[in-house]
Design a protein that fits this description.
This protein is mainly α and about 230 residues long. The chain has nine helices and no strands.
Length: about 230
């Protein structure tokens, strides 16, 4: 957030190379869109905030949709790449979920609000930003789905509904961690990683109730042998 404010202070300076000016504009636009959503930000207000003219924004990005889409690509593509790299190890390893969280936090360092662009409910259905946001979400979701399946297979669980539920739980954990981070901007990416590692290391879940090694591949059986009271 502070970086975006600093960028806004410099963006209107004459003599700034176009590439640097674009970076400054995108940093502030990402913050504004993340905070207020697509419909809550006008190009005129954004230009005033940055310290440039409205025509300059249209000259650089063509339209509000073009600007938003560019902001989306700047968060969605590196996020997917970082998560994919963090998952380049067995998903069932205890260190893998923490590695994925650290990758997300590192990618969003200094701009946790960028995450919200991917999940902006105000995007017009059928618009370019809507389609781009969905594409990036689908890429991240596919990685989460694959990781969930690998984790459950390591425990001999093949139920597709279990995998889908685990994916949803994981996505909620990641999303709510970023929401919390946005409310606590004093936290760095490193401190968020340490905090999550500490919490997940303390909250441990055992295997299936039926016991270690029980085969759950048919997905229809329920755990056998209720414990005697």
């Amino acid at each position: 957030m502070e970086k975006a404010r600093a960028a806004a202070a410099r963006a209107g300076t004459k003599g700034v190379p176009r590439r640097d000016r674009e970076e400054q504009i995108l940093a502030v636009a990402t913050e504004e869109f993340g905070r207020h959503g697509y419909t809550g930000v006008s190009m005129a207000a954004l230009a005033r905030r940055i310290g440039v003219t409205k025509p300059l924004l249209y000259q650089y990005f063509g339209s509000k949709d073009g600007l938003y889409t560019t902001c989306l690509d700047r968060v969605g593509e590196p996020l997917a790449a970082a998560v994919r790299a963090a998952m380049d190890r067995p998903a069932a390893e205890p260190a893998t979920p923490i590695a994925v969280l650290r990758a997300v936090f590192t990618t969003l360092e200094g701009r946790p609000g960028a995450w919200f662009l991917l999940y902006d409910q105000s995007l017009p259905v059928g618009s370019a930003p809507y389609g781009t946001a969905r594409r990036h979400r689908d890429a991240i979701d596919a990685l989460a789905a694959g990781g969930a399946q690998d984790v459950l297979r390591a425990g001999n669980i093949e139920d597709p509904l279990d995998a889908d539920l685990l994916k949803c739980l994981w996505n909620t954990l990641v999303g709510q961690s970023v929401v919390w981070w946005a409310r606590h901007p004093e936290e760095s990416a490193a401190s968020m990683g340490e905090r999550c590692a500490r919490i997940l290391g303390t909250v441990r879940f055992g295997g299936p109730e039926g016991g270690e090694g029980e085969d759950h591949r048919d997905g229809g059986e329920r755990h056998r042998g209720e414990r005697e009271r």
